[in-house]
Amino acid sequence: MNAAGMDKLVILYPVLGQVRKLILAFTMVFLQNWPNFSIFSINFQTLMMIIMIGLTTPFKSKGDFRIENFNEFTILVVNYHLMSLTDWVYDGNTRYTIGWSMIAVTSLGIFVNLSILARQQFLFLRLKHRKWAYQKAHAKHALALDKVDEEKMKKEDEEKKQREHERVEALQQAKEHRLRKR
After folding, report:
1. Is the dihedral of CA 125, 131, 135, 138 positive or negative?
2. Which residue ranges make up each domain of the chain?
3. Is the dihedral of CA 42, 44, 47, 48 positive or negative?
4. 0.70 cut: is pTM over it?
């Protein structure tokens, strides 16, 4: 299939995600007595999702693509560790070492995802702080302009009152002048 045809398959990514969850639920309920088949089922699902992500690139950014591939790869590595924890490996020391290796891989996956979340939160908070500082700086400027405008309006009001007072006095003088002429 060509690249344009693969792009049309992007719509299947969320559908396959839901089908994957259903298969996982089915596996946990009906294959609990056969752990080898459960692990193979989970490995198959993970491999299919890696292939689907690689072929269709359903994410807008490369960062999301890398995170999803890293998470799927981590799940695959943990599943391979689970295979070693079945009856195939009889040596207890080997299982113990594999168990700690599985804990390390899981911890690495958690650490990487949490550090990505922390970085995104830090960038968001830094942006919020910059917006707040910008608004605060411009608010001071706006307050200064408002103060100047307020003083200007007071001055204009005083001048208006003065003119009104002068007009009233002029009218009173004119009235007195007319009364004197009579």
Report:
1. positive
2. 3-126
3. negative
4. no
